[in-house]
Amino acid sequence: MRSTSTSTSPPPKSRPESRCRPPWASSFRRAPSILTILLAATQRPVSFAEAGRFCGRAGAGSGAHYSRQKSKTASPLFNHLRRRRAGAHSTQPFPTMNIGIIGAGHIGSALAVRLTSLGHSVYIANSRGPETLKEVEQKTGAKAVTAEQAAQHGTDLIVVTIPLKNIPDLPKNLLASVPQDTPIIDTSNYYPMLRDGQIPELETGSLTESEWVQQHLGRPVVKVFNNIYADHLQNKGVAAGTPGRISLPVASDDSAAKQKVMQLVDELGFDAVDDGTLHESWRQQPGTPSYGADLPADQLREHLASLGTERTEAQHAEFKANHARTEQAMADQGIKLK
Ligand SMILES: NC(=O)c1ccc[n+]([C@@H]2O[C@H](COP(=O)([O-])OP(=O)(O)OC[C@H]3O[C@@H](n4cnc5c(N)ncnc54)[C@H](OP(=O)(O)O)[C@@H]3O)[C@@H](O)[C@H]2O)c1
Predict the structure, then answer these.
(1) How many C-beta atoms surround the C-beta of residue 42 within 10 A?
(2) Which of 90, 173, 178, 184 has minimal CB crowding within 10 Å?
(3) Nearest CA, atom 40, ligand 1
(4) How many domains does the chain have?
(5) Is the dihedral of CA 166, 168, 171, 174 positive or negative?
(6) What digits encode the pLDDT tens for the residues 243-294?
């Protein structure tokens, strides 16, 4: 995944608004064409790929994907057919977006593979600079950029997916010029033993993990993709209505942003389940019943409802202990997180 090649060319200019804005960017939504309706009616589930290990590097590039240049120049009909072939799982036609991903590891790469294969333009960054991401570019079809450029070019969506302990290292004002209605996704999990060290607010439970991230970023975030393995995120999306379709909890204080992200979750092949506010997002954190469990939507809703909304001290202690056991088991297997 690491590379030493040197490509520092700046990302191309964004496409015209009319061709890249998602449905929520405009009050006008086109009615689907007859062809679109016929295609939706004949949609079939895709087969599952082999599941990978939690800590295995995302197999970026295992799915079909297409270059950004192709997606930019092809006709809407061609793009639609191409996206269908690449595994667009939503029954709704979904305009292509400009997406910035900060973090090019397991989750960042897995998302980049899926999003580029759906026709979106993806700009991806790590901490060491775009020249170190040649291989990621080749495998994902995303354009390697700096974190600042990812924030600048991700006009429709930003994903922050770096180790929790590194969140405070992100450049100050990184998101200052990102439009207010651009959703910002946080995929963080807290691994105090293996990676993050002790963060007092998370140890006491006074904040949820994403509330802590939100405070650092200075912008509302949407918590999602934190409780599915990167490999499953890349390979286990299926068409809506497929029995056993995996569901993902989505939490945010910004309900408009949450709705937009829930649409994207569906497009990626998963049922989106509303997990309430960011303060309630402890219910999808490590150590809870649904964490990494790939539950279908009805079971996930049941689990979330059974926990209530306000975390009790007993729940905090229980889930923290569960997670500590998991971290210890990972450590015993020699698993290291950086
Ligand atoms: N792995 C999973 O299956 C999984 C599942 C759900 C949620 N998560 C959570 O999602 C987050 C990301 O996990 P991951 O497994 O994808 O991590 P990872 O594989 O370790 O990758 C981390 C990425 O973040 C980049 N990064 C680190 N600090 C940065 C900074 N200051 N600015 C820009 N980029 C920076 C790294 O770049 P460099 O290499 O250049 O430092 C690397 O590309 C974590 O909170 C994790 O717990 C992981």
Answers:
(1) 8
(2) 173
(3) 127
(4) 1
(5) positive
(6) 999 999 999 999 999 999 999 999 999 999 999 999 999 999 999 999 999 9
